[in-house]
Every structure is written in C-alpha cells, then in structure tokens.
C-alpha cells in the first residue's frame, strides 16, 4: 500500500467515477484500475461494489476512506513543514539565555527575528552561562546567550561571537541617598548591604562581581543572596540592599530601582552568542545575523 494508491482510491470515491478520477489525476484509466487492483490485493478484499451503478464502497472501502484521507493530508502537511524548514521559514529554535538578557537585549532580537520568520517555533530556556556548553553540544539548544566577566575559557566544538560590552551599574532602591547621583564610587556603597546573585555553586559569576567591587576600592558586606537577577532586583526594590547589574538591565526602566554608574570598575561584562560547530543550521544562522544587525 502506497501513497499513490491511496490518492487514486480517494479520488474515485470523491468524484464517484473511475473515468472522472483518471481525468482529474491525468492518468490513463488502465493505470488507475491497475493501482486499485493492487491495493485490493494487498488488503485482501474489494474496496468497491462494481455490480452497482454508480459504484459503491464496500465495508472495507468505507473503513479505509477516512483513514486514507488522513494519511494524504498528513503527508501534505509534512511536505509543507519540511519545505518551510529547508527555507528557514519554519522549524524550531531553542535558545538558552542568561536571565539578565531578558530585560531588553534578547526581547529586541526576538521581535526582529519573528518579523522575518513568523511561523517559527521558539523555545526559550533560562540557564547560566556555565551550563550552556553541555546543552549546545547535546543539541538541547542551538544558541546560547552568555555573559562573561573578563577572560573566559572556550569549550572545544563551540563558537563564541562577542556582541556587546555591558558596563556595570549599581542597582539601588529608588529612595536610597545615592540614587540621584550621576556617578558614585565603590566605597560609597560600603554602608549598604550587598545582594549576592546568582546563588549557585556551579557559577563563579557572583564571586567575580564581588572581587570587582573590592578592586575598585569598595568593601561590600554580603547580607542577602538571590537565586537569579530578578529576585535580586526585587530585594533591592524592597529597600534591603544593592547589587551590581549590567547597564543593559537598566533599559527595562524599573520605577522602583535606580541604576547608577560606578567609577573605577576595572571591566565590563561581555554578552556572547555561543553556538555548536556541528549544529549550526540555517535557522540558527539567521538568528545570529539578527543579533549582529542589532548589536555588532
């Protein structure tokens, strides 16, 4: 039983005549009859009661018809989907991202990308930079949006595309005495409790930020811990302390948090797109092109 046989069978049923079906399919009546005979032989019974005029479906034919239609429609949908994937218009793109990139950086890129490929299925998975390489190599994600402070080790088999240098700013409660300043020093924050994030033993990012403040002349006192940046900002908004975030986070324009630059910080964070050598398909390349258009 093949797709051609099922197509011929359904055409006869829908037109009510072998002659009409052969004309619509542009095949010789003998070729159509041969295909139907082969199908009946495979199924072990007749599909049409040929003693009646017009022909009627046998119980076997009645059982086959809706299932044959379903197979034909499913095949057509599959072809359309595969053609869309081949052209880059359809398919799936899984992105692993650091949570801070969702403040403004990543949504802007996704909006631009969706304008080009509205039929694409996107899966967005928050994960720390240290966890993204294994997910890329396994194929769980196609692109990782990572944040690194200073030099970082590159994993074999992965490509790293630097996009943005994101300087750090202090996130302070809106009513904090320093909130209205245009620039502060690290030591100005010594009397304000420090909110450490992310609280994760697999990440050294929190320790690197802490070191950055100390090297700039500050002596921060860690009082609170947060699992991720949005919880940290919630603690700040509650008036319980301050934290350091990338300037890109300030683009979200929270009304309950002030973002103030700090003088003397030695480095900025790098936002980097990470991809796998062996899993960079046309859809992933298109998203990288969108990131380059916006940020490189």
TL;DR?
Helices cover 40% and strands 23% of the residues. The chain is an alpha/beta fold and 296 residues long.
Structure write-up:
This protein is α/β, with parallel strands linked by helices. The protein has three domains: 3-87, Winged helix-like DNA-binding domain superfamily/Winged helix DNA-binding domain (Arc Repressor Mutant, subunit A), CATH 1.10.10.10; 91-164 and 270-295, D-Maltodextrin-Binding Protein, domain 2 (3-Layer(aba) Sandwich), CATH 3.40.190; 168-267, Periplasmic binding protein-like II (D-Maltodextrin-Binding Protein, domain 2, 3-Layer(aba) Sandwich). It is 40% helix and 23% strand. The protein has helices at residues 3-15, 18-25, 29-43, 59-87, 105-116, 132-138, 205-215, 229-237, 282-295, and strands at 48-49, 56-57, 91-97, 120-126, 143-149, 158-166, 168-173, 184-185, 194-196, 222-225, 243-246, 257-263, 269-276. It has a five-stranded mixed β-sheet, sandwiched between helices. Helix 1 (3-15) crosses helix 3 (29-43), helix 1 crosses helix 4 and helix 5 (105-116) crosses helix 9 (282-295). The longest helix is centred in the first third of the chain and has 29 residues, at 59-87. The model has no long low-confidence stretch (mean pLDDT 90).
